[in-house]
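Let us work through a complete example step by step.
Step 1: write down the sequence.
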Amino acid sequence: MVFNENASFWAKSARDFDKQTSQDRSALVDRICSDIGQVNRVLDVGAGTGVVSRALARQVSQVDAVDLEPEMIAVARQNAVVSGLRNITFHTRSAYELCFSPRTFDAVVILNSLHVMKTPEVALREVHRVIKPSGLLVVPTYCHAETEENLKHYQQWASKSGHRSFHVFTCGDLCALITRCGFEVKEKDVVEIRYEQQARGMILGYVVASPVFRQ
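Step 2: predict the structure and record it as tokens.
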């Protein structure tokens, strides 16, 4: 969670968020880590309870985890302590105003956050500012509009849970957004993510991109 439009939902969800475990989610985190590899410094935008941050911290030198919701960051910090990880720095702030110098990060992850931002292009342009020219952007994002059936399933779940998406992407929409914000899409895939508490999965667009810097 990286902004305050959904703050009450995420504050209520923070303590129970990590209970949404599944083999699909574990495989997704493994895929993110494999794509990023053993680099120096990684930014995790919308870090939530730090699931991806902790996995990356085991293979990179430094992770900066950013989330606007204090309850999420509190859980993430506690989880890192329990895991014995000391190379994660936590930041309670908006993805719209990142507190880093230009061209700082070797890789940036934005996992399932762009669709719940009112203006995701602002966050992506901030990411473009702080990523290195050789950096990698990994943006797995729910694409609720990929099929009519998936959209209907999401809408039913959202009406019960109180969750709000400002954008219902297709994978094509997601790639177009990322491209408009100064990145070149290198890889795109559509996968289904199923959680143990859900009878049905949700469709996710898995996109990997690199920054484009015009001279």
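Step 3: interpret the result. Helices lie at 7-13, 23-36, 51-57, 70-83, 120-130, 148-161, 171-180.
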